């Protein structure tokens, strides 16, 4: 397995290309296409999509019916076919093509010296500035036909899917401009028939706001069809007699923008991206209604014909031409992060508000440690009380120092509770812990420095034992503080411990998002009286504070055991949401994290926390993730209620994640050992 190859990892490199048009000069236009085709070949591109009627120009009007022009188009296609013989890239070019007694507005698909097929435009606009029916015949009824182009007899019709035999999942369908603007585009039926990459050759003159309309349609098509949608529009050189042109190109994948070029360019432009074919396949496997829709439309879907071809993709490292977010749960874009935090925060608050209302308005009992998770849960509880018109004194916050509780975190818990105006108490669990350890005959009770899992869980368990009994006593419910990342890694104490609560407000929030939610609360003045201490809490290292710190040693750090949450949340999103193989997770993590200076970081992310990870580190912590993820399913199978926050899912057995507690990660670990190198 070629770990470093994007093609071996389930990607296909796709280009949307716009070039200067030479009106009514097919030979010159063919030369432009060939030049860009060679550049695409050098960039290891699998499919390059050019604009509508690019061999003539879209705006030549009645010249489309001139024999001289049509003959020149035939020669230009032959020139491109000949030039493509030693090129890897499939070329999708726009041209007027004669078939029978009519001219059709077509996409001609060429690769390695062959015409693979010709797809006519199905729906011809004949309104406002458009007069296409004056020259062209609609192609919507041209199924199961053949045509001779450049001396080759090939399939003709809008019913063609070009299936690549040596790049699994690369199944291309082509439509032309207006085809996307109708209520049921040909590409929608093609997607149901198996097409994963949908291409659109467009003329599309530009007017105010039309670019946004295109983006809306392309994004929507890619999302609805769970596909990549490739769009290339005509630009420089088209006639400006009555119109203008902007040469917009873009590629969307399942609703997300992969890339786009500048508009109104002064020369050729290429949007080159790597489309994730695995992601598309996984999306369709999960969204079972996608195939149900195929069943509804089976009569039309079953008519599609398959044209097989081979790419012979390159081997080795060709890079990765797509943005890979370091933090799948945390957008880099400030506006998107702002909206995500607003929604996540209010999902949590309204969830707790509803639960308190539904069960008789109990008080909220929370254990506060001064760490991020309990801090955010306390914030949520206070805001829920505010919205319910209840006093914050109905939030009962308890700090429960153990054998390793530091003065700093304890002071944070105290100051935060006082600033928020909640009912606050300190309950020292050490006497009860010492008694339990002595009753058990634990070596610690004999003076030995044995800090094993029992020693840790006696403290963790007692804290929640007290919280549940305090809730009984004070008429409250225990609000859980554990987050999504901890549940995935099993970093919680089962039963009477932080795995359990009456309602878990953070269960859908990953560790890497919590800090941004607190920053959002600070910046929006949700709880201004606590801003100062909240800012200080954000600076602290994540620690369970269960093991005493010996002289000269650093305090216990959670990430030393479970791995960096940066990497583990990255893996969590890709495994749970997309079902990716370990080798692909490692490949993407390596590209995302190998250079701290490259790429974007979320707004407000501290400079001194911007780290990089080597492939060896990625591999090591991926193994830890797999081992812990499989070993701790039993904890996730018994989770309390809590709201789903992220589209990547939750660990709830009633929601997004169902898995037997006895499953083994052997196959996943074997793949890491076999397919993921250390450097």
Features:
single chain, 679 residues, alpha/beta, 7-stranded mixed sheet, 6-stranded mixed sheet, 21 helices, 38% helix
Task: Provide structural commentary.
By secondary structure, the chain is α/β, with parallel strands linked by helices. The protein has 21 helices and 20 strands. The protein has a seven-stranded mixed beta sheet with strand order 13-12-11-10-9-8-15, with helices on one face. α4 links the parallel β10 and β11. α9 packs parallel to α10. It is elongated and about 100 Å long. It starts with 10 loop residues before the first strand and ends with a helix. The relative contact order is 0.09. The model has no long low-confidence stretch (mean pLDDT 95).
The side-by-side strand order for the widest beta sheet comes to 13-12-11-10-9-8-15
Quote the average pLDDT.
Answer: 95
Structural class: alpha/beta
Percent of residues in β-strands: 15-25%
Helical fraction: 25-40%
Q: What is the number of helical segments per DSSP (H or I, 4+ residues)?
A: 21
Low-confidence stretches: none
Oligomer: single chain
The count of DSSP E runs of length 2 or more, i.e. the number of strands, is: 20
Tell me, what's the shape? elongated
């Amino acid at each position: 397995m070629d770990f470093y190859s994007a093609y071996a990892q389930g990607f296909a490199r796709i280009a949307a290309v716009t070039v200067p048009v030479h009106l009514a000069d097919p030979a010159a236009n063919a030369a432009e296409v060939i030049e860009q085709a060679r550049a695409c070949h050098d960039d290891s591109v699998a499919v390059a999509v050019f604009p509508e009627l690019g061999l003539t120009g879209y705006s030549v009007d009645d010249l489309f019916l001139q024999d001289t022009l049509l003959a020149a188009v035939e020669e230009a296609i032959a020139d491109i076919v000949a030039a493509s013989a030693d090129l890897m890239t499939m070329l999708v070019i726009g041209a007027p093509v004669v078939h029978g007694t009519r001219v059709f507005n077509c996409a001609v698909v060429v690769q390695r010296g062959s015409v693979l097929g010709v797809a006519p435009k199905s729906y011809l606009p004949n309104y406002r500035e458009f007069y296409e029916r004056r020259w062209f015949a609609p192609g919507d009824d041209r199924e199961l036909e053949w045509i001779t182009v450049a001396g080759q007899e090939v399939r003709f019709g809008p019913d063609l899917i070009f299936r690549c035999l040596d790049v699994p999942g690369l199944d291309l369908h082509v439509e032309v401009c207006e085809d996307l603007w109708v209520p049921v585009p040909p590409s929608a039926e093609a997607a149901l028939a198996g097409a994963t990459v949908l291409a659109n050759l467009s003329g599309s003159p530009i007017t105010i706001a039309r670019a946004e309309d295109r983006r809306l349609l392309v994004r929507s098509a890619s999302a609805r069809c769970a596909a990549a949608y490739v769009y290339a529009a005509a630009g420089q050189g088209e006639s400006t007699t009555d119109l203008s042109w902007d040469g917009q190109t873009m590629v969307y994948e399942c609703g997300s923008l992969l890339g786009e070029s500048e508009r109104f360019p002064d020369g050729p432009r290429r949007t080159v991206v790597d489309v994730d074919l695995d992601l598309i396949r996984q999306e369709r496997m999960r969204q079972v209604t996608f195939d149900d829709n195929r069943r509804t439309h089976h009569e039309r879907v079953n008519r599609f014909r398959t044209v097989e071809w081979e790419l012979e993709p390159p081997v080795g490292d060709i890079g990765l031409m797509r943005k890979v977010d370091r933090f799948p749960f945390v957008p880099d874009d400030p506006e998107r992060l702002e909206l995500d935090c607003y929604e996540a925060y209010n999902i949590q608050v309204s969830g707790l508000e509803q639960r308190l209302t539904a069960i008789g308005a109990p008080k909220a009992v929370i254990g506060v440690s001064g760490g991020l998770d309990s801090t955010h849960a306390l914030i949520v509880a206070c805001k829920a009380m505010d919205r319910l018109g209840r006093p914050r004194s109905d939030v009962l916050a308890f700090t429960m120092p153990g054998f390793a509780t530091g003065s700093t975190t304890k002071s944070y818990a105290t100051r935060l509770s006082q600033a928020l105006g909640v009912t606050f108490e300190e309950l020292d669990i050490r006497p009860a812990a010492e008694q339990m350890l002595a009753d058990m005959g634990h070596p610690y009770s004999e003076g030995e420095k044995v800090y094993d899992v029992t020693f840790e869980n006696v403290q963790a368990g007692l804290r929640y034992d007290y919280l549940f009994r305090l809730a009984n006593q004070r008429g409250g419910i225990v609000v859980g503080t554990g987050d999504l990342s901890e549940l995935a890694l099993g970093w919680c104490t089962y039963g009477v411990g932080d795995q359990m609560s009456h309602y878990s407000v953070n269960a859908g929030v990953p560790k890497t998002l919590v800090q941004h939610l607190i920053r959002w609360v600070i910046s929006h003045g949700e709880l201004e009286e606590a801003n100062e201490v909240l800012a200080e809490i954000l600076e602290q290292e994540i620690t369970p504070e269960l093991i005493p710190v010996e002289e000269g040693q650093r305090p216990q750090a959670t990430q030393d055991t479970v791995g960096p949450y940066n990497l583990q949340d990255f893996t969590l999103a890709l495994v749970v949401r997309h079902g990716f193989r370990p080798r692909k997770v490692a490949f993407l993590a390596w590209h995302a994290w190998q250079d701290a200076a490259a790429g974007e970081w979320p707004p407000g992310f501290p400079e001194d926390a911007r780290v990089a990870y080597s492939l060896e580190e990625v591999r090591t912590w991926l193994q830890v993730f797999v081992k812990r993820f499989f070993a701790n399913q039993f904890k996730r199978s018994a989770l309390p209620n809590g709201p789903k926050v992220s589209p990547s899912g939750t660990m709830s057995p009633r929601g997004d994640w169902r898995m037997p507690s006895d499953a083994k990660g052997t196959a996943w670990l074997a793949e890491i050992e076999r397919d993921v190198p250390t450097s």
